[in-house]
Write a structure and sequence with these properties.
Elements lengths: L1 E8 L5 H16 L4 E8 L6 E8 L2 H8 L13 E8 L7
Antiparallel strand pairs: 1-3, 1-4, 2-3
């Protein structure tokens, strides 16, 4: 299992435009083989922060989606990003 998680920072005035622009990417990802979840969502406290969360069955599935091309997007600039890939070796109920 692969988890991609972190944050993107955009100008607070651009956050809704950014999220509207990537909404279709979430639909494409979720329809892809091996995608269990794909979300980019507004942080409820910080207006310029976007939370990123993806969950994939394998690296192969993640790379197949990333290399499949996608729509041309007109997005506002990302000011900073801190997004990491986590390799999960065991899964248990909470």
């Amino acid at each position: 299992m692969i988890i991609i998680a972190g944050e993107l920072r955009v100008d607070p005035e651009d956050r809704d435009r950014y999220l509207d622009g990537v909404a279709g990417v979430a639909r494409l990802a979720r329809a892809s083989a091996g995608c269990h979840d794909f979300t980019q969502a507004p942080d409820p406290v910080e207006p310029g922060r976007i939370l990123v969360y993806e969950r994939w069955e394998s690296d192969d599935d993640l790379l197949a989606f990333r290399n499949s091309g996608g729509p041309e997007l007109d997005l506002p600039p990302i000011l900073s990003a801190d997004v990491r890939k986590y390799l999960i070796s065991d899964i248990k109920a909470p």
